[in-house]
Amino acid sequence: MEERAHVELSRRERQIMDILYRRGRASVAEVLDDLPDPPSYSAVRALLRVLEEKGHVEHEEDGPRYAYRPTVPRAEAVESAMQRLVRTFFDGSTERAVAAFLDMSAADLSDEELERLAELIEQAREEGR
Fold it and tell me: Which CATH number fits domain 7-70: 1.10.760.10, 1.10.10.10, 1.20.1050.10, 2.60.120.10?
């Protein structure tokens, strides 16, 4: 995984990345429209510039304005975020993280979802051999 995926993002930067992943690409005004409790236009523009410097987004000219899009594939960003989550809250233990997620949502999981999870565990077991 490239180094940029390991750079920590602020809460606002994560919100902007979520918007860009959802939209695919967006102008400053579109990001501003989607942000909760939005800062000023110039603050959003500055945050996008920081994200570009960190290597998370790139821009292209779209008429008189820039359109921004993520450079890190969503799957890579998710994997990096999950790794940080497991390291930070579960001392690097995937088992503890999965157990915590199951404890949180056990009542909400359907039989089909539980079966799929069992299949994923079996697949991981086979790949680990």
Answer: 1.10.10.10
- For the segment 109-129, what is each residue's pLDDT rounded down to a tens digit? 889 998 999 999 999 999 887
Asked if residue 80 lies in contact with residue 67, where contact means CB atoms within 8 angstroms, the answer is: no
58 near 69, Cβ under 8 Å?
Answer: yes
Q: Please state, in angstroms and rounded to a whole number, the distance separating the CA atoms of residues 38 and 97.
A: 33
In what helix (H) or strand (E) does residue 66 lie, and over which residues does it extend? Answer: strand 65-70
pLDDT at position 7, please? 61
pTM of the model: 0.68
CA 105, chain centre distance (Å): 21
